Amino acid sequence: MDLADLRIFRSVVDEGGITRAAEKLNRVQSNVTTRVRQLEEDLGVNLFIREGKRLHLSPTGKLLLEYADRLLDLAQEARDAIHDGAPRGPLHLGSIESTAAIRLPEPLSVFHRRYPDVELELRSDTIPRLLAAVLAGELDAALVADPVNDPSLDKSTVYDEELVLVAEAGHKPIRSPRDVMSETLLAFEHGCAYRLRMQQWFARAGVLPERIIEMTSWHALIGCTAARMGISILPRMVLATFPQAKLSIHPLPTEFSHAPTVLTWRKGARSPKISALLEVLIEGRSGNRQARRRKS
């Protein structure tokens, strides 16, 4: 059973018989008759009750007609979507936790209102798993911290996060990795761009953190840092969501204090939905900048 069979079947029903359906489809009658018979043989049922040259839909035929209408309409919708380039259909988006929680609520609300025909699904995960999901086709795109160096992926910078060192309240000033080389480093798993910045900071000074404990969420990382379990590195914007946490903030050298967040997708697979999302994200970024200027 294919769409052509269903189209012929529906035409026979709509036109009230083989002869008119053949005229409508610009086919010979024998061809239409054969295709209907083949469809019945394929399904193993009679779609019509035959009374001489007259055809009446059987109960099974009526059931198939409902599905045929839906399938043919959906196929036409798919053709229209491809040709008009309008964003529509499912959009599977991934994001690192901090960006999903803090950066995305407003732009995704704008995106939903502007493109109601797009069915957005958001998934938070670690950077390695998000990139793997994009490459596997499980996600259409993902927001992750740079660097993204896989040649199979395209990317566009959306945000530039300021990274800071965080320790418990009252911690002595941290000016060098040597000031904290005996302390525990709290970080996400391997592949986290923020953890990489921290390790690079240590490496430049020729020292290594005494111990690294991996965390799975910002809440755990900040809570353990405030409880004097160790030090961590995180985007400054995250701290605004934990005003009650008793922490001290220490700046990083410029070369380690910036972490661009990029929207990445499979090379050659930038759909109208991804382009529309990127446009909304960049608009939101510009709006935030203007708001900060007005406040200052």
Order of helices and strands: HHHEEHEHHEHEEEHEHEHEEH
SSE-based structural type: alpha/beta
CATH topology of the largest domain: D-Maltodextrin-Binding Protein, domain 2
Which bin fits the share of residues in helices? 40-55%
| Intertermini distance | 66 Å
Please, how many helices? 11
CATH architecture of the largest domain: 3-Layer(aba) Sandwich
- Specify the CATH homologous superfamily of the largest domain: Periplasmic binding protein-like II
User: What does the overall shape look like?
Assistant: rod-shaped
Query: How would a crystallographer describe the biggest sheet?
Result: 9 strands, mixed
Q: How many structural domains does the protein architecture include?
A: 3
Strand content: 15-25%
Radius of gyration: 29 Å
Number of strands: 11
Just give the CATH class of the largest domain.
Answer: Alpha Beta
List the uncertain runs: 289-296
Which whole number gives the mean pLDDT? 88
Key terms:
alpha/beta; disordered C terminus; 24% strand; D-Maltodextrin-Binding Protein, domain 2; 296 residues; single chain
Task: Please give a quick description of this structure.
The protein has 296 residues and is α/β, with parallel strands linked by helices.
